[in-house]
Description:
The structure is a single chain. The chain has helices at residues 53-61, 117-121, 124-127, and strands at 2-10, 18-20, 22-26, 29-30, 48-52, 75-78, 90-93, 96-103, 141-147, 149-152, 156-161. It has a single domain, classed as M1 Pyruvate Kinase, Domain 3, CATH 2.40.33.20. It is mainly β. Helix 1 (53-61) links the parallel strand 5 and strand 6. Strands 1-6-5-9-8-7-11 form a 7-stranded mixed β-barrel. The chain has a 3-stranded antiparallel beta sheet with strand order 4-3-10, with no helix packed on it. The mean pLDDT is 96. The longest helix has 9 residues, at 53-61.
Amino acid sequence: MQGAIVQVNISPGGLPKRAIAEGWIAPLGIEGDLHAHPNIHGGPLKALLIIASEVVDALRERGYPLFYGAMGENLTTRGIDIRQIRLGDQIRAGGAILEITQPRGPCTALDVYGESLKLEIYDQKVKQRDYTSPRWGMSGFYASVVAPGPVRAGDAVSLVSKLA
């Protein structure tokens, strides 16, 4: 499984996150990225949010006013089959190694793009961490940082190790 990083995103807190040319993935996420609600977002198990550009593109085609970074992701990827990602998988993103920790549970901040968006990307099966859901991966995945490193748009993103 190999793809590319389309965009690296940070914000001063909240949505949307905006593109930066390059960043440094540190143990708690991309340096300079802040969270509006640090008691909910961030921390070592939610250091980064990864969303596939294919999901954003498909939702935009369905009429949602989205763009890369709009859903709060730090890394927008292309070419990774999100249906095959499992919790515990390790991926290389640029010069960093990340471990997938959990699916993202979308919050009301996404309602600005349409109240039905959450229903399009998340369901009870995803909440229960069941990868057989047709919405698996659509809301994005949180990741912890196994090894810090640099990251920029165009860098490769690839599977390093699969848990199961």
